[in-house]
Amino acid sequence: MRISHQWLRDYVEHTLSPEQLAELLTRQAVPVEAIEPREDGDACLELEVTFNRHDLLCHIGVAHEVAAGERLRVRVPEPSLPEGREPVTAYTDVQLEAPRHCPLYTARVIRGVRVGPSPDWLVRRLEAVGLRPINNVVDVTNFVMFECGQPLHAFDLQRLAEGRIVVRTAREGESIELLDGSARTLDSDTLVIADAARPVALAGVMGGANSEIVDTTRDVLLESAYFDPVAIRRAVRRYRISTDSSYRFERGVDPARVAWASARAAALIAEIAGGTIAAGLLRREGDPAHMPAPREIRLRLARLRLLAGVEISRKEAARILHALGLEVIEQPEALTVRVPTARHELTREVDLIEEVLRVWGYDRVPVRETVAVRAVRPDPRREALARLRMVLVGAGLREVQTLSFVPADDVHDPPLFTKAPALRVRNPVRADTPALRRSLFGGLCEVKRGNLDRGNRTLRLFETGTVYLPQDDGRPEEREQLGLLLDGDFYELKGVLEAVGRALRLPSLACVPVRGELPGFDPLERAAVQLDGAPIGWIGRLGRAAAERFDLPEPLPVLALLDLETLLEAADLRRSYSPPPPYPAVTRDVAAVVDERVYVGELIEAARRSGADALEAVELLSVFEGDGKAVERGRKSVALRLVFRSPERTLRGEEADAGREAVKAALRERFGATFRE
Questions:
Q1: Which CATH number fits domain 380-570: 3.90.180.10, 1.10.150.120, 3.30.930.10, 3.60.20.30?
Q2: Where are the domains of the chain?
Q3: What is the helix, strand, coil percentage profile of the chain, to 5?
Q4: Which residues touch 283 (CB under 8 Å, ≥6 apart)?
Q5: What is the spatial distance between Cα 393 and Cα 416, in angstroms, rounded to a whole number?
Q6: Distance of alpha carbon 166 from alpha carbon 223, whole angstroms
């Protein structure tokens, strides 16, 4: 942003040299990058303005900074409008068809102007900030924009079809020739200013050549509006056009300045170019939800002292905030601050504290040789996540991070955690990835594909990331998810999950059979992951359709996807100690022959629940599929090791034998098991 040193004095009577002014602004967190002396004795200061400080994109905004730092007052000109008798509605009308993109649109009419060169004072002001004078009407609109930050546009009223304005989105395929001589073909998402027949301006960006102010112009329609910053930003990126106007609209102008800027420009045009101002302001209001509103924030003086680390009086804090353009009501222990729309980036108490501190002077805050430290409880979720990562890295897995944007198809992003279709973004970064992921499935498979292309065929990966589950109101529920991918055996990945369960002390974490369709996974090698009996994810080998989608050859990897938030919330991180058992264990083996459709996990769970005395653990030894000889076809032999132990004494052999018989009876009753000796 370029600021004229002499122009600034029109609004605040400072006595600072350009160098002193630069030092003051930089100290108040408004860095001055360069000072450019001019031949006429003026100087141009180049300010570095952050995206949220739209109020500094004009001389009045910078004047407030100088007034706050130098204890001065800001003078804002009060426009004097010599209006004629005829109302503005006698000459034009405005139809607002895009209320969301344009929450506020105003128009004035000045009739009988004489277009010509601008006076010297106006030329000097514009040239000081790097603008080229065009004519007295257009130069006034640029002057007011650099004065107060509100972009304006002047139309030749006689060149508008039916003499009226229509604020709408473009019709697909419409085109416009802009003031820079370029032609643009518009799409249906683009906001335009049109007349009764065609677009006459790319709203908030640039006017059209078919309605520009020329030497023969006699009647001027003056536009002053508030456009939705998102709509303007989209147009700037889509058509690759950036102007002084769009630069301000993208950041959000002050809606309270819209009418003032219109009156100020109309008065200057009438003064410089002559003409009569039609009575009144034609005003059309759209959706107020897309326009900032004033807010009230309470600043506690105790909070100011705590964060500043220094005593700043109530009157000094009030003075600073008032000089910055805020309305302040003093109370014994607080300030009630009414924030205008010109400073809509100020939303919290801490924002006001920062405003006070940067003007009061960060350099005045004393440096202390000691720093107070207060112990806080560790975040259990963060500690659980760190432990989870340690286990996975210890198991040989490497962490990856993938993108949240995915193709909008159920093969790349299968509906594993919701049946609702993936949410689409309105302005995707890439046309082939317009949706928000519902799981980490596709990202992990893409990483697998990319490593294959580079000759790395064996992977052990994990990822923790955010997924977006669609809700009924159209908004996503953001959930953290854990994804694992291994080139290996299903039971190896299951063992990794069991290690996670042990590390987080989740004994109920288990893999259970799943019946029915499970998109993305092999129908013969898959399972649901449960915690306390409730499903939290899936594990299995990649399915054939997904393998073809990602062009992955055999052997296919195994994957697991779990709801990470549920895991972390259930984690038990309490440290405990159990002394080693003082008495030895006694083991007994059983070989149960059951139907091949019975899951091994069901057998182990039934053995644990058999009620056998002193049964400490059940371990799987082997599984032998029926070959028609030792075991008949359609059945299988599952060898289990039963571990018995008493905390009070050494068990006798017959007690372990009785426990084994209890287990056998339970398996025989539930599964019709027979036993091999």
A1: 3.30.930.10
A2: 2-70, 83-290, 295-364, 380-570, 586-676
A3: 35, 25, 40
A4: 104, 105, 106, 259
A5: 26
A6: 12
Q: Tens digits of per-residue pLDDT, 243-267?
A: 999 999 999 999 999 999 999 999 9
Among the listed residues 635, 426, 414, 453, the one whose alpha carbon sits nearest the alpha carbon of residue 545: 414
Question: What is 239-274 written as a DSSP string?
Answer: HT---HHHHHHHH---GGGHHHHHHHHHHHHHHHH-
Give the pLDDT band (50/70/90) at residue 600: confident
At which residue do the structure tokens 């059951």 appear? 594
- Residue with the two structure tokens 């249906």: 188
Pick the CATH number of 295-364 from 3.30.56.10, 1.20.58.1000, 3.40.50.10300, 3.30.750.24: 3.30.56.10
Cis upstream peptide for 82 (omega within 30°): no
Least confidently predicted of 202-211, 258-267, 512-521: 512-521
Give every CB contact of residue 271 below 8 A, 6+ residues apart in sequence.
none
| Cβ–Cβ < 8 Å for 338, 296 | yes
Helix (H) or strand (E) holding 362: none
Q: Do domains 2-70 and 83-290 have the same CATH topology?
A: no
The letter for the amino acid at 39 is: E
- Give CA–CA dist 77/93, Å, rounded: 29
535, 348 Cβ separation under 8 angstroms: no
Class of domain 2-70: alpha beta
Q: How are strands ordered across the β-sheet holding 32-37? A: 2-4, 43-47, 32-37
Q: How many CA atoms lie within 13 A of 140 on its CB side?
A: 28
Task: Supply the CATH classification number for the domain 586-676.
Answer: 3.30.70.380
Q: How far is it, in rounded angstroms, from Cα 21 to Cα 62?
A: 11
Q: Is 579 exposed, middle or buried (0-12, 13-18, 19+ CB in 10 A)?
A: exposed
In DSSP terms, which residues pair with 482 in a beta bridge?
A: 464, 562
Q: Are 406 and 466 in contact (CB under 8 A)?
A: no
pTM over 0.90: no
Element (H, E) at 58: none
Cβ within 8 Å of residue 633, ≥6 positions away: 626, 627
CATH of domain 83-290: 3.50.40.10
d(CA 273, CA 135): 10
> At 370, is the pLDDT very low, low, confident or very high (cuts 50, 70, 90)?
confident
Do residues 384 and 53 touch, judged by C-beta distance below 8 A? Answer: no
- DSSP code of 424? B
